[in-house]
Amino acid sequence: MIDKNPDSLSWLSRTLQNTIAYPYATWGGSTAFLAALWSAAKDGKGWCASLFAAILAVVITLSVLAVMRKTGLHEEWMPLVGMLVGFVGAD
Q1: What is the helix (H) or strand (E) element at residue 82, kind and residue range?
Q2: For the chain, how many structural domains are there in total?
């Protein structure tokens, strides 16, 4: 539902609701972000390239997790997918 007059904190409340509703996706996305950021920074890339790689890893992880959820794969594997995509990298 789209708010016609959203207040300044409505996006934050919706983000927190989604974070609580999908804990495995939250954990998978955050581990992918941190692992990709650390891996790219360790390889000597600049901060802009590291941040872009981390955001791209999160997008890839959330796409894989959506497919896993649709096919009915076990949800406890989702954080592992985030770590694998983060360390392999989006490059």
Answers
A1: helix 78-88
A2: 1
- Return the percentage of the chain with pLDDT > 70, whole number: 89
Residue 8's Cβ-count burial label (10 Å; 0-12, 13-18, 19+) is exposed
Is 32 inside a domain boundary? Answer: no
- pLDDT > 70? residue 80: yes
Structure tokens that stand for 31 in this block: 């581990």
Residue type, 83: M
Question: Is pLDDT at 23 greater than 70 in this prediction?
Answer: yes
User: In terms of residue numbers, what domain contains 64?
Assistant: 43-91
Asked if pLDDT for residue 17 goes beyond 60, the answer is yes
- Contact between 54 and 40 under an 8 Å Cβ cutoff? The reply is yes
- Annotate 56-71 with b (16+ C-beta within 10 A) or e (fewer): bbbebbbebbeebeee
Does 82 map to a domain?
Answer: yes
Examine residue 60 and state whether it is found in any structural domain, yes or no.
yes
